[in-house]
Amino acid sequence: MNLHLKGVSVKNLPPLSDSVGGSSSITGDLADILGVEVNLVEIKTIDTVFSMQIFSEGKLLDCQDENEFVKQQMKAYSMYVTLNEQRAEIFQNINERGSVFGE
Fold first, then answer.
1. For the ranges 72-76, 92-96, 99-103, which has the lowest average pLDDT?
2. Are residues 7 and 33 in the same domain?
3. Would you give the DSSP letter of residue 45?
4. Residue 61, domain extent
């Protein structure tokens, strides 16, 4: 994996799951270089809500494969819509009862 960030180039990073100690060393190094909090995740391995938060609130610094980015973004939005449709009845029941656990 290669990462390019505004004048910073980190080449041949191992996949995050293969990093010794996870991604904490890479994250820490990038945070030190950039002077901001950094979170690295493998978008294909995280849950639907977190994925949606990343695409809706995150800031893309660099993209080497725009087609893959758009594919993952559309997948996240689609899965999030499906999730909301699936839990709509649950939320409706909670609103009608006025409590999550009933009375």
1. 99-103
2. yes
3. G
4. 44-103
Handedness of CA 51, 54, 56, 60 (dihedral sign): negative
pLDDT in tens, 18-46: 444 455 678 888 888 888 888 778 888 88
Contacts of 64 (CB under 8 A, 6+ apart): 2, 4
If you write DSSP's letter for every residue of 11-71 in order, what string do you get? Answer: -SPPPGGGSTTTTHHHHHHHHHHHTS------GGGS-HHHHHHHHHH------S-HHHHHH
* Closest residue by Cα to residue 24 from 10, 35, 12, 37: 37
Point out which residues pair with 4 in neighbouring strands: 9
User: Where are the strands (E) in 1-103, listed by range?
Assistant: 3-5, 8-10
Category of 19 on φ-ψ map: left (φ > 0), alpha (ψ -120 to 50) or beta: beta
Does residue 55 share a domain with residue 35?
no
